[in-house]
Amino acid sequence: MTQHIGIFVTGGIAAYKVPLLVRALVRAGNEVRVVMTDAAKAFVTEATLATVSKAAVLTDRNEFAQPEHVAHVALAHWMDLAVVVPATANTIAKLAVGMADNVVTTTLLAFSGPKLLVPAMNDQMWLNAQTQANVAHLQQAGWQVLPPATGFLAEGYAAVGRMPDLPVIETFIATVQPVAFLTGQRVLVTAGGTRERIDPVRYIGNDSSGQMGTALANVAAAAGAEVTLITTATLPTLPQVTVVPVADAAAMRTAVQATFPAVDIAIMAAAVADYRPVEQADHKLKKHGADGLTLALAQNPDILAELGATKTHQVVVGFAAETNDLLANATAKLTKKRADLLVANRVGAGLGFNQPTNAVTLLAPDQAPVALPEAPKVTIAAQILRHIQQVRA
Ligand code: C5P
């Protein structure tokens, strides 16, 4: 889905990373227009940003270059989404009081769509009570804020204030929700394929990348939920997602059972191995020669079925990845595992696993199947989460 994204660059050192962000957003299929303050020009050039965004950059110098239209109003009309990155303490203060003294603040004042703030500054400037009050005020006014990370600052020491890594900012932009439709909800998501150890260097695994589950966790968090993601994958997540890394089915089960009682919604998107080696060697197994090697496998517990059997108030959602007889197999799983919703997706060559897009069918007891056509996984995630809200209602 092409979005018209306005990137507003203000005068902080992290501005030097913005061209790479713009390039990633353009590569992902978005159209980007950049607006920059004069202070930002000390850190990144207008020519670089124009080249990577494939469009002229709006500045205080060229705002009136085309008298036939008012540039800041035209841009505000064009944008679907505005991102201030990096946002300095100075620009945050101006935005908080509604000032419009340069092309960045003027355009943002004229824009009523979703507005994202990515503050990055010195730790003391960030922790300053006035800066914190300004950010809190903007959040109340509907701005969505990606808090700065803790790490190495330009000043040469580690502290809070660092601009989050670009994949996290890309995730923040890609998962933004116009309405916080999951505020107050606690959501548990599993993601990724489990790795069942054979020995210290080998495992039985599968092709699940964890993208679908991670998208569900990020979108749920962007929609206001309190999210725990139990995952075998290491993909970018929003800072407000609590990530519990696990490797195998046994560890995933322990973590799920510890989290499940306190949640409202549990989404089991992980591809959990059905079997594990009975024995896990503590040393690398030697070659067995021409006779071959037989691995004895034991069945893993079905985590989803256990949740279905023990749920009280929770909505339990499962996934069914099938290569054939999709709906028949998925409907059987819905009943057998006592899930409230089953997300069925066809997998195989070029489908489902390890792809940025997905196409799924939603199955709920006594309801007609709902087919969601192929779309990016974050879009599918938002549709699934909205459907879960309907199932609950
Ligand atoms: O039976 P199958 O593995 O195809 O079912 C898939 C669904 O069951 C997914 O939601 C998956 O997370 C869950 N599952 C599980 N524990 C297992 C196997 C699958 O929770 N041992």
List the helices and strands and how they pair.
Blueprint: E1 4-9, H1 18-27, E2 31-36, H2 46-53, H3 71-78, E3 81-87, H4 89-97, H5 103-109, E4 115-119, H6 123-127, H7 129-140, E5 144-145, E6 149-152, E7 158-162, H8 166-175, E8 186-191, E9 196-199, E10 202-204, H9 211-222, E11 226-231, E12 242-245, H10 249-259, E13 265-268, E14 275-277, E15 297-299, H11 303-310, E16 315-322, H12 326-336, E17 341-346, E18 357-363, E19 370-376, H13 377-392
Parallel strand pairs: 1-2, 1-3, 3-4, 4-5, 8-11, 8-13, 11-12, 13-16, 16-17
Antiparallel strand pairs: 6-7, 9-10, 14-15, 17-18, 18-19
Query: CATH fold name of the largest domain, please?
Result: Rossmann fold
Count of runs of 4 or more consecutive helical residues: 13
- Please indicate the count of domains: 2
Contiguous low-pLDDT stretches (5 residues minimum) are none
Strand portion, in percent?
A: 15-25%
Structural class of the helix and strand makeup?
Answer: alpha/beta
User: Can you tell me the overall shape?
Assistant: elongated
Helix content: 25-40%
CATH homologous superfamily designation of the largest domain: CoaB-like
**What oligomeric state do these chains adopt?**
single chain
Widest sheet: strand ordering: 12-11-8-13-16-17-18-19
Largest sheet: 8 strands, mixed
CATH top level of the largest domain is: Alpha Beta
| N- and C-termini, Cα separation | 29 Å
Enumerate the distinct ligands: cytidine-5'-monophosphate
Q: Could you report the average pLDDT, rounded to the nearest whole number?
A: 95
| Second-tier CATH architecture of the largest domain | 3-Layer(aba) Sandwich
Q: Over the alpha carbons, how many angstroms does the gyration radius reach?
A: 24 Å
Number of DSSP E strands: 19
